[in-house]
Amino acid sequence: MENDRAVPQNAEQLRHNDNESTGGGKSGQSVRRYSHWQELINNLPYMVMTLLGGAVLAFGIPGLLLRYAAASVYVVYGVVGTLWIILFVCPYCGYWGTRACPCGYGWIAAKIRARQTDSCFTDKFKRHIPVIVPLWFIPVVIGIPLLVRNFSWGLLILLVVFALEAFVVLPFVSAKHGCKECPQVDTCPWMKGKHEGTSSYPSAETS
Ligand code: SF4
Hints:
7 helices; binds iron/sulfur cluster
């Protein structure tokens, strides 16, 4: 099947030359490599959202055991969601096994699963991203009824901060930084239309 994704021609070169910033390739353009610090920074919005969601549950749910159990399950869900993407989406990405992935999932995926065909990337993305979508809604769906039944300023503030982080800060940072710099930006279903044609990364068409 024809691969219609804009996979950099030098992604393959990056896999075999992962020691320094790589320029050239067929396109002659450079592909940015991310340090572990940069990867950590790019993961921070998701990590903060997960912790805030856990805090909403821990603060709002009555009963010591129940509240910490719910918060723990939510945070574990956030971690498992990340692993899910690494296992079921990243192996289909052209940046599997390289340091060109902004959040570091690419090189982690290479340690646990073999590379799969790039042509399925969009399908896999659409199929598996919904697995993590409930993370955005669980604290709100549980927190608002708790707030109505037993109002507290602490829970209200946590819910507002969570909502701002999940629905404003994270999408904004992703659109302006993490996803904007992602090599997949021109073909990603999430970013498609928001960022078309502005990726600084070499694409198949540039070769
Ligand atoms: S760019 Fe996206 S799909 Fe590709 S390896 Fe990184 S996180 Fe996974």
